[in-house]
Design brief:
Rna Polymerase Sigma Factor, Chain: A, mainly alpha, single chain, Arc Repressor Mutant, subunit A, elongated
């Protein structure tokens, strides 16, 4: 089944009538597995806003990556629907898929021919930087933090988001992108230093 014909191209706000809150999920799944195109379209229409919102929140400010992630989520979901066992809601299941797809974005875009150290050359940062997790997580600073993230090089922004927004350890990040934990730590230090510099100037 072509997911784009099931309503994905329309993005949030599809004209397809949404599914009622009390709809029967097992019945819907069975209909999709019988190749019912209308059921597939209703499935996408019911959940695309939630998936889109999740992906946008996790990838901001790189909102240009959101459409592809959402497309991949529904492609994977429709292909793997036969394995859905109903132990959670369809929406929770889709968000789980989206979480993995966002992780894939971080891994793929931070795996580059240049090492993290090579791509982020510069002097060692000062060690008195304000903790980035406190700055990014504070509600009152979120807008300012996003503006600064938009001004950072892509690799800086992704590293900071992965570490502080997704709460991944430097060990997990290093394993995912095939480098050393020390390399990730140095790269994060430089990214934090640049973030702080822009924060104080704004």
């Amino acid at each position: 089944m072509d997911p784009s014909r099931a309503g994905i191209e329309g993005q949030p706000g599809s004209s397809i009538e949404p599914i009622a809150a009390d709809f029967d999920e097992p019945e819907l799944v069975a209909s999709i597995l019988r190749k019912d195109r209308k059921a597939a379209a209703r499935f996408v229409a019911a959940h695309i806003d939630a998936v889109y919102g999740y992906a946008r929140q996790r990838l901001a400010p790189r909102v240009d990556l959101v459409d592809d992630v959402v497309q991949e989520v529904f492609v994977a979901a429709l292909r793997g629907l036969a394995a859905f066992q109903g132990q959670s809601s369809l929406r929770s299941w889709l968000i789980g898929i989206a979480r993995h797809k966002v992780e894939d974005v971080y891994r793929q875009r931070l795996r580059a021919p240049a090492t993290l150290d090579d791509s982020m050359a510069g002097p060692e940062p000062e060690t008195d930087a304000v903790p980035l997790d406190e700055q990014i997580d504070a509600r009152r600073a979120r807008d300012k933090a996003q503006r600064i993230l938009e001004r950072l090089p892509e690799r800086y922004g992704l590293l900071l988001l992965w570490r502080y927004w997704e709460q991944r350890s430097t060990r997990e990040m290093a394993t995912a992108i095939g480098t050393t934990e020390k390399s990730v730590e140095r790269a994060l230090a430089r990214a934090r230093d640049r973030f702080k510099e822009l924060w104080l100037k704004e």
